[in-house]
Design brief:
By secondary structure, the protein is of the alpha/beta class. It is built from twelve helices and twelve strands. A hairpin with a 4-residue loop joins strand 3 and strand 4.
Length: 323
């Protein structure tokens, strides 16, 4: 079983291994039937809370599943192809229905599966900023990704479905007496609508792309200067488990590492801009502590950061094209 689902072994993940092995036959059958026998098995990070790695080669984001007394909450709708995989996987985790699907932000790998979920009876939801970003950028981005992705084309739709429940304000709480789930807007970081999902009792934080583990982020829609301040608020929650939008789960080091990378990048680009450099003239070398977050094409991040510094406004608020 271990060889098939490639379970990671860490001393602090004994619970993960026990749960996966207990559900082994059912989960293994599902993996074989769906052709995903090499996929990463779901990790149980707390009783009734699972973390599922998205397959990077397919552009999928990670998913968090939270079990309530009578239903399930899914964090991030993902792309339509992944949505169908997740729907097939849910019975291996819990027999309860998916009632809510929360979009942490408007990007396609986190929201383009919305209509697939709602057709299955779930209610999609997100903060106001997510709907505003969709209204700003769609259906243009949907159509662009439809040219690249079969699962988007296969929906037969021409625009992303907006979340059915729009959350106004900075906080929304679901508490059924068994578990409390807090949906938090801490400010404009990765996008103007970034939503976090916080389990105060379990001290588990799902971040979407407000914090990722690895070189898997884009800054085009960000407010780069403000993002570290937002992450300070997330760090202040003192989570013991951080479930990022991309990359493996970990602890608060994911938040602090993402934060430091942004601070160092902004400072380095600022020095170059102050020296009168622009475009391809700008070249930065970041400290070794940032290695985990530095993308292969750092030029795109430099471009966004330069635009923000020169434009004296959030990069995401300036005219730009998603690349």
């Amino acid at each position: 079983m271990q060889a098939v689902v490639a379970l990671r072994r860490r001393k602090h993940e004994g619970l993960t291994e026990r749960v996966a092995l207990r559900r082994g036959p059912f989960l293994l059958l599902w993996l074989l039937l769906t052709g995903l026998a090499g996929a990463q098995a779901p990790e149980q990070v707390a009783p009734g809370v699972w973390f599922l790695l998205g397959e990077a080669s397919k552009g999928y984001s990670n998913t968090t599943v939270i079990e309530m007394k009578d239903y399930l909450i899914v964090v991030d709708a993902n792309y339509p192809g992944r949505t169908k995989e997740l729907m097939a996987l849910m019975p291996t985790l819990s027999p309860k229905p998916v009632r809510y699907v929360f979009d942490t932000h408007a990007h396609g790998d986190h929201s383009y599966g919305n209509s697939t979920w709602t057709k299955a009876g779930a209610t999609t939801m997100a903060f106001t900023g997510v709907a505003k970003e969709m209204d700003r950028w769609e259906p243009g981005r949907w159509q662009t990704f439809g040219e690249r992705r079969e699962d988007v084309r296969a929906t037969g739709e021409h625009d992303v479905e907006r979340p059915k429940k729009i959350i106004a304000g900075d906080k929304f709480v679901l508490n059924d007496g068994q578990r409390e789930v807090d949906f938090l807007f801490l400010g404009w970081g990765h996008t103007p609508g970034d939503g976090y999902v916080w389990l105060p009792k379990e001290r588990v934080l799902a971040t979407g792309d407000a914090a990722v583990n690895g070189p898997r982020n884009k800054l085009a829609d960000a407010w780069i200067a403000n993002w570290p301040r937002v992450l300070d608020k997330a760090i202040a929650l003192q989570p013991t488990a951080v479930l990022p939008g991309h990359g493996e789960r970990g602890g608060v080091e994911i938040l602090s590492g993402q934060r430091q990378f942004l601070i160092d990048l902004y400072a380095a680009v600022g020095v170059e801009v102050a020296a009168g450099k622009r475009g391809a003239e700008i070249s930065v070398t970041l400290p070794a502590r940032d290695t985990n977050w530095v993308p292969k094409d750092l030029a795109l991040d430099i471009e966004s950061t330069t635009a923000e510094i020169v434009g004296k406004a959030p990069a995401g608020g300036l005219p730009h094209v998603w690349k």
